[in-house]
TrEMBL record:
Entry annotated with the keyword Disulfide bond: no
All copies of domain FecR protein, residue ranges: 186-278
Keyword Transmembrane carried by entry: yes
A Pfam family reported for this protein in Swiss-Prot or TrEMBL: FecR_C
InterPro entries assigned to the protein according to its UniProt record, in alphabetical order: FecR, FecR_C, Ferrdict_sens_TM
Domain Protein FecR C-terminal: 322-389
Assigned keywords, A-Z: Membrane, Transmembrane, Transmembrane helix
Source lineage: Bacteria, Pseudomonadati, Bacteroidota, Chitinophagia, Chitinophagales
Name the UniProt record assigns to this protein: Iron dicitrate transport regulator FecR
Ranges annotated as spanning the membrane: 90-109
């Protein structure tokens, strides 16, 4: 079935149209796009609804372009290596367009005409489930647990000779003295949680929702090994000691690199952004990955597939986005359930077709459900922490 995603340059024109108006040549390009397909006009009219864009544009208006341009550019997916004002202006509009795109979860057309979002709005209670945030639990070697949320900048703990400093959304471990005993801590995120961790060697780890990592307070002279469940993104500090991530009965071996490991629902997916890693399975089976490659391992039979990777998709969660590309509705719903910490009940057969698009992870649950309805015809209701989606 035909699927047509909103082009990025058209998103730029639409945003600029509503914010400050277009130059004649820009207006001509937008008019040509509107005239090309009646569905384009329908989509444009949906954006004309002030209530749909009010919060997104208010958010963008609050940005300090000179101070925050790099963060905005990163969200738009652009390289920020050159700090020039003309480039900054381009990034401003590109980022603006990405925010416009993010007001809808998919902004693509399924094989049939869908009703406008207003007709498919989810029924939500006054206190609806909120997007996830910085939430985690730290388990010390003694068994003591510490709830982590919005930590103050001067929060300090001590464990196994290591000083642990905390701030909002992040823990940082200092290297313990060599004579100290090696102790192990576990950082766990709940559904609807995420957290960042700096290990004793300087390696940085981002934990996604429903994930955990067990790690030593200091690394021995032999190697650096951590145990992961769920999903984590790693930026490993280069060292002569190899770094191992153990997950679902396999290991990812590295020296210094950037990669993502996801191990939900019986599938382990390792995506390499930079450097080199080796996938190690029982029986001396191993696969070397190059940057831009992804290894998918089926936990039940250790079947391994290595393919080119979509790095942007793999790392989107770490950069504050849901990013879907040819994903099944069941997989989309599973991600949303983890992040919004809701139970989802599906009524009727889910669409067989695949979906693509993106939305900010801080979008409201109502926005997400509206857009699911927009592209699939589903109707959603929310009662407490239970979401019912009727296809």
């Amino acid at each position: 079935m035909e699927q047509q995603q909103l082009p990025h340059h058209i998103a730029e024109l639409i945003f600029k149209h509503f914010r400050e108006g277009l130059q004649p040549d820009e207006q001509a390009r937008l008019n040509n796009w509107l005239a090309a397909d009646e569905r384009n006009r329908t989509l444009f009219d949906a954006f004309s609804n002030p209530s749909m864009l009010e919060k997104e544009m208010a958010f963008f208006d609050r940005l300090d372009l000179d101070a925050d341009w790099e963060a905005v550019a990163v969200r738009a997916g652009y390289d920020t290596g050159r700090n020039t004002r003309p480039r900054r202006r381009m990034l401003y509009w590109s980022a603006a367009a990405s925010i416009l795109l993010a007001t809808g979860i998919f902004l693509l057309w399924p094989g049939r005409q869908a009703a406008p979002p207003a007709q498919l709005a989810a029924t939500a209670p006054a206190t609806a489930p909120q997007p996830g945030g910085n939430k985690a639990m730290l388990r010390l070697s003694s068994g003591q647990t510490v709830s982590l949320g919005h930590l103050a900048g001067d929060t300090v703990l001590s464990e196994g000779g290591s000083r642990i400093s905390g701030q909002s959304g992040q823990l940082v471990y200092d290297e313990a003295a060599a004579g100290e005993a090696v102790t192990y801590n576990t950082l766990s995120t709940p559904r609807g949680g995420q957290f960042r961790l700096t290990l004793a060697d300087g390696t940085q780890v981002w934990l996604n929702a429903s994930s955990s990592i067990r790690f030593p307070t200091r690394f021995t002279a032999k190697d650096r090994t951590v145990e992961l469940t769920g999903e984590g993104y790693f930026e490993v500090t280069k060292d002569h000691k190899p770094f191992y991530v153990s997950i679902n009965g396999m290991k990812v071996a590295v020296l210094g690199t950037r990669f993502n490991v996801m191990g939900y629902n019986g599938i382990t997916r390792t995506t390499l952004a930079e450097g080199a890693v080796k996938i190690q399975l029982p029986g001396d089976r191993s696969w070397n990955l190059k940057p831009g490659q992804q290894a998918v391992v089926a936990v039940d039979n250790n079947d391994v597939t290595v393919t080119p990777a979509d790095i942007g998709k793999a790392l989107a969660w770490k950069n504050g986005l849901f990013y879907f590309k040819d994903d099944a509705m069941a997989d989309i719903i599973a991600q949303l359930a983890r992040w919004y910490d809701v139970e989802v009940s599906v009524k009727g057969p889910m669409p067989a077709r695949l979906f693509s698009g993106n939305i900010r992870r801080q979008a409201s649950l109502a926005q997400v459900l509206d857009m699911l309805g927009y592209v699939s015809g589903a109707k959603s209701t929310v009662e407490g922490r239970t979401v019912t989606i009727q296809f």
